[in-house]
Amino acid sequence: xxxxxxxxxxxxxxxxxxIRPTSDKVKEAIFDILGRNINGKSVLDLFSGSGSLxxxxxxxxxxxxxxxxxxxxxxxxxxxxxxxxxxxxxxITEKQxxxxxxxxxxxxxxxxxxxxxxxxxxxxFHRKGKKFDIILLDPPYYKDVVRKVLINFLSxxxxxxxxxxxxxxxxxxxxxxxxxxxKLIRQSQYGDTMVSFFGEIG
Length: 202
Known about the structure:
Layout: H1 24-34, E1 42-46, H2 52-59, E2 64-69, H3 72-85, E3 91-94, E4 100-106, E5 109-115, H4 118-128, E6 132-137, H5 145-155, E7 159-170, E8 178-179, E9 182-190, E10 193-200
Parallel strand pairs: 1-2, 1-6, 2-5, 6-7
Antiparallel strand pairs: 3-4, 4-5, 7-10, 8-9, 9-10
């Protein structure tokens, strides 16, 4: 796998076994739509998998990225890839509830990797008052996970004002046009993959 554009353009990174990584076509489409809106933004990459979306966000100018996945193999690969992409020292700190967080400070970037259930992570961020400008979702297909996560976001306010939620999902997983105060503002299909952009109403 590779980074498509930005400061890490062309850099190759490993992908964990047994996952469905975001294709270059879909990844490029997402970030072309975002354009310069990614610059200086705080990004949350949920169901990170290979970390591909988060790496692309950093490469294109995001100020910070938090990676969250519940798969130990994925977390290990993300850490390995980060240590190679960002050639700097890794600092490991033990957080409450035995959450192991890897924090990398490099220039303007602050990048963390959390081995944690996504719904528990959302609750943790809410408790800490953490908000994100862009939230990326690439959960397993066929399980209606995106709808469940969107509903969870409403209970735990972690999206910044004027923030965006970008969900990658199977084309037959139909999402509602509105989920309470969230509205579908853009949707594009790429083969079997649908990409849906949500923002807050008003």
